[in-house]
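Predicting structure from sequence has reshaped protein science. With that in mind, we have picked out one protein's residues alongside their backbone shape tokens:
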Amino acid sequence: MTVLVFGSLNMDLVVQSPRLPVPGETLLGNQFNTIPGGKGANQAVAVARQQVPTQMMGRVGADDFGQRLRHALTLDEVAVEGIQVDPNAHTGVAAIVVSDQGENHIIVVPGANSRVDKTDLSKLEVALKQADLLLLQFEIPMAAVIQAAQLAHAAGVTVIVDPAPVQAFDPSELYPYIHVLTPNQVEAAQLVGFPVDTLEQASEAIAQLHDQGAETVLIKMGEQGVLCGTPQEIFHIPAFPITVVDTVAAGDAFNGGLAAALQSGKSLTAAVTWATATAALSVSHAGAQPSLPQRSHVETFLKQQHVL
């Protein structure tokens, strides 16, 4: 059985800079690269590198970036038959500035991602028959995300949602159809309407999200680790000590690692620990997809941390 990823594909246009610019300021950068990205594609690669069969579904434009994105996925043995080539839109791009401290500013221009519609959903409905788990993000239209979750729920497929970037939606149309919601601190604050800077505030946010219908909520807290809430319990997984180089794909690494671990039969606690290690390894390397670790690297890291 397969992990399906339904979402965005972008070409990341990455500038390395000594620091992030302030409004109106021009800085001289250190380096420029074009790197395959998009939250959907990143998560597909993150899962595939955990040696789990993975299929990517979404849209690219009929341009060079689209061809390069599809080719990059095949190098990681991600199935790409479900990616539509849209002749009427450009491939999505993300303009990213990364500071020497590992902080980033990102602007996404969705392009073909914004045109995902019922045609893509019809293909997804067929693919769900051979899937164990579906990963979703918010870089495609919310109507498509919601219907995808509902289709997966009807098919008995586990659904993990990364609510990034946060868009307006009716929680009653989404939360009852998903199993795991994985916001970071900023996204959690946008979802609940109050700051989520501390573990205590994160606990309050989890309670509110449960009241709105979310089943399991994992709030990614950066250096504070991950606070996990199920209907039965709340528990905390500390962050691993790591030297931060680039945080661009940290959330995607986490979700990919989480999906792979759950698909392999790990408990929720073990899966979140695995996902936290996957994210830690990703931030220690530059780039989105280039930073995503192989399964063997995660295993070695956890042994070094005396977890395995």
Summary: The chain has a mean pLDDT of 95. Residues 268-283 form the longest helix (16 residues).
